[in-house]
Amino acid sequence: MVSLAGEVLGILMRWAHIASATVLLGGLIYARMVAAAALPEPAEERAEALERLGSRFRPLVYAAIAGLVVSGLYNFLSQPGHTPSYHAWFGVKVLLALHVFAAAVLGVRSSRAGSEEEAKRLRRMSGAVISGLAVILIAAYLRLIY
């Protein structure tokens, strides 16, 4: 039997996980699909705008990653008895999530490189968005089979 405090903690951790995923993936989608397209054209202004956007989003990225790791570990460890199939899909989910984390951190790091670096950054964000959406799909499947 689970205590009231345990239930509240479980609900808070699930909320933290969903909220962190929403902030991280939603921010990446916005940055890739909206903000990148709205940046000014002269290269100097564009680089300056990218730097400002990255510096503002950086704390949210780090907080969201920390929230996902802590709440994800709690959620996984508080529900024992998973099948081998669950563990296999969970492993894929974790690897894709690590890709999202790495791309997000690289996307908000400070750099004053040229258009080549900007193109890499946009490709990384596109890949992170695809991986993030795949993580959500796998999470929905895991919720179904558990």
Quick tags:
mainly alpha, 146 residues, 86% helix, elongated
Number of strands: 0
Radius of gyration over C-alpha positions, nearest whole angstrom: 18 Å
Biggest sheet features: none
Number of continuous helical runs: 4
Q: Which term fits the overall shape?
A: elongated
Q: What is the strand content? A: under 5%
H-E string: HHHH
- Kindly give the count of domains: 1
Which spans have pLDDT < 50 for at least 5 consecutive residues? none
Description:
It is a single chain. The protein has one domain (4-145). It contains four helices and no strands. The chain has helices at residues 4-38, 43-77, 84-108, 115-145. The mean pLDDT is 90.
